[in-house]
Amino acid sequence: MYLKRIDISGFKSFPDPTTVLFDQGVTSVVGPNGCGKTNILDSIRWVLGEQRPRLLRGGRMEEVIFSGTRQRPPLNMAEVTMVIDNHSGRLAVPYSEVAVSRRLFRSGESEYLINKTPCRLKDVYDLLADTGFGSHSYSVIGQGMIDSLLSDNPEDRRFLFEEAA
Amino acid sequence: MYLKRIDISGFKSFPDPTTVLFDQGVTSVVGPNGCGKTNILDSIRWVLGEQRPRLLRGGRMEEVIFSGTRQRPPLNMAEVTMVIDNHSGRLAVPYSEVAVSRRLFRSGESEYLINKTPCRLKDVYDLLADTGFGSHSYSVIGQGMIDSLLSDNPEDRRFLFEEAA
Amino acid sequence: AGERFLATFEAARLNFQSVFTDLFQGGEADVRLLDPENPLESPIEIYARPRGKKALGIRHLSGGERALTAIGMLFGLYLVKPSPFCILDEVDAPLDDSNTGRFLRLVERFKTKTQFVIITHNKLTMECADNLYGVTMEQPGVSRLVSVRLNPDQPEEETLFTTIR
Amino acid sequence: AGERFLATFEAARLNFQSVFTDLFQGGEADVRLLDPENPLESPIEIYARPRGKKALGIRHLSGGERALTAIGMLFGLYLVKPSPFCILDEVDAPLDDSNTGRFLRLVERFKTKTQFVIITHNKLTMECADNLYGVTMEQPGVSRLVSVRLNPDQPEEETLFTTIR
Ligand SMILES: Nc1ncnc2c1ncn2[C@@H]1O[C@H](COP(=O)(O)OP(=O)(O)OP(=O)(O)O)[C@@H](O)[C@H]1O
Ligand SMILES: Nc1ncnc2c1ncn2[C@@H]1O[C@H](COP(=O)(O)OP(=O)(O)OP(=O)(O)O)[C@@H](O)[C@H]1O
Ligand SMILES: [Mg+2]
Ligand SMILES: [Mg+2]
């Protein structure tokens, strides 16, 4: 099971449909401050079902929708699709390629899809459960998280061990 | 008024007497992880009268005394001296050079000296009051402090503005 | 559930110890449940002693030593239950060049099991990547992805990527 | 005291705005008392909008944008009441090369009034320094200071400094 690509559209600083292809091996993402690198990480957390706006640096979930710039108007929908290779059969669905999509409209409506079939958030969680793919997991390490792992509050690291169990 | 040098002895990872000379202009301090750079900053905070062990990464103040390595035994005293040029007369003492010293013994005894004359901590504070030299001030910016200036807690930055007033 | 957590915890602990000793070229580390009778509620304590130094508690570690210890803990967990995909956001920021190199060699060893995406400003990390994406913002506030090749003659991060469209 | 705080705050605010616009080559920033009737108790709010982007609140800023904003606030305060001496510990860690350059040019402008000591792993910062100290730990756990000259042919941080004793 491996990640093939992410399609980002209308999410944070990615108003235009953008595809990030992932090959095997190590991919490094680089660029100047504020250009959108962590936003890519946020889009991955989000499509995996993250429900806490705080972990996406927001106060409300609708803040992930492209809010416009001085030259471009805001958009009304954010959509992210993650495409996973499933030749190993690790995901319990009869497809060799699985696309998980999430959409959010400014009205507040949310949609989740698996291979273009609408489903519930719960179905996305169930699909990915126990695979190590998950927004709460130790597979997404955000800026500043490393320091909190050693914080004075020994509870801060508990969730990592729970994930691995 | 400017900083001429710091003499560090028995403080954290500096068991042997070490002198750091400061010229005019910008001095950069470099070296591998864990080699003692932040400890130099801590020694400056400490000699300026910092009373909170937490700001020196400690639980108790005696943790600033060199605690030994696998090859060297611990020491019983830490001493730091800061030498300030006072040709401007900004410090209210009749000396063109002012040395502020602080000692801490493992027994818990503390000493403060101004130009080798024993004094109280309060005398060090009074001497430096209003000069912009002070451990609480915005002139000592530790690792990780930059982020706390923008924290969600608007109280975190208040002390900087109070210092400047 | 408590049983399973304890088993996972013990595996993670052994892995952490071995990864730490590899990253620090010696020294020793441990991770413990403060309350082993209540594994699912217990705070988790970390102990880390770099090679040749005395154990002083993790609060006395330097910024880079803390980051490397946290990386050791993460990768210790990856050994228990590998994630197929792992995205790391600037975890190398506090590391000096030698420690960055050790971190990258660790990633090399894990990349057969795990697809890594590493967001970074660090040139050494960029050089080690198999694939390199640049994120740019020519239109203010609008992110765009470009595929990149490193130009060793252009050390400036920004000029490094403008050559490729 | 409240009067004086308000006067200081207003001066710091104007300075912050001008330093920010310089560091971000445009954009705008502000700092406000949430409760101006009670200046000595009031929380302090920060507003920062990078050039060309829309104002989204400081929680949406990137890691580097946050660091640069905090640096702007600090230096805004230095303009109100210059500190004779200022020690900065790795404040450049999250900055890309261009922003590091802007930070260093800011330090250049301030260094006539303030003696700077900058702890760093960043090569650009090292190159800009007037004086360079290396801290080493050949004996584990024992820090030693060496005066250093930069060797541009040896990019590795550690080998950079072993040549000078
Ligand atoms: N909903 C949104 N609409 C438009 N732009 C947004 C939105 N949310 C965030 N942004 C923009 O994204 C930018 C931050 O991007 P990001 O955090 O990905 O930067 P980065 O590349 O990780 O930079 P750094 O190297 O400093 O960490 C901010 O400047 C912010 O204005
Ligand atoms: N009381 C003490 N006695 C002996 N050693 C100490 C004492 N307190 C701290 N140390 C040592 O100092 C080291 C940390 O030094 P410091 O924080 O100055 O590193 P640094 O050069 O700033 O590194 P980095 O680049 O990672 O921030 C630790 O390894 C710790 O063991
Ligand atoms: Mg970022
Ligand atoms: Mg440090």
Key features?
heterotetramer; A: 165 residues; alpha+beta; six-stranded antiparallel β-sheet; 4 helices; 8 strands; C: 165 residues; two-stranded antiparallel sheet; two-stranded parallel ribbon; 6 strands; 40% helix; globular; disordered C terminus; binds adenosine-5'-triphosphate; binds magnesium ion
Q: Say what oligomer this is.
A: heterotetramer
Number of strands of chain A: 8
Percent of residues in helices of chain A comes to 10-25%
Summarize model confidence as the mean pLDDT of chain A. Answer: 92
Number of DSSP strand runs of chain C: 6
* Computed CA radius of gyration of chain A, to the nearest angstrom: 16 Å
Reading the helices and strands of chain A in chain order gives EEEHEEEEHEHH
Helical stretch tally of chain A: 4
What is the structure about, briefly put?
The complex is a heterotetramer, with two copies of chain A (165 residues) and two copies of chain C (165 residues). Chain A is an alpha+beta fold and 165 residues long. Chain A has four helices and eight strands.
What are the SSEs and their pairings?
The complex is a heterotetramer, with 2 copies of chain A (165 residues) and 2 copies of chain C (165 residues).
Chain A: E1 2-9, E2 18-21, E3 26-30, H1 37-47, E4 77-85, E5 97-105, E6 110-114, E7 117-119, H2 121-128, E8 140-141, H3 145-149, H4 158-164
Chain C: H1 2-23, E1 28-33, E2 44-49, H2 63-80, E3 85-89, H3 97-110, E4 115-119, H4 123-128, E5 131-136, E6 144-147, H5 157-162
Parallel strand pairs in C: 3-4
Antiparallel strand pairs in C: 1-2, 5-6
Bound molecules: adenosine-5'-triphosphate (2 copies) and magnesium ion (MG) (2 copies).
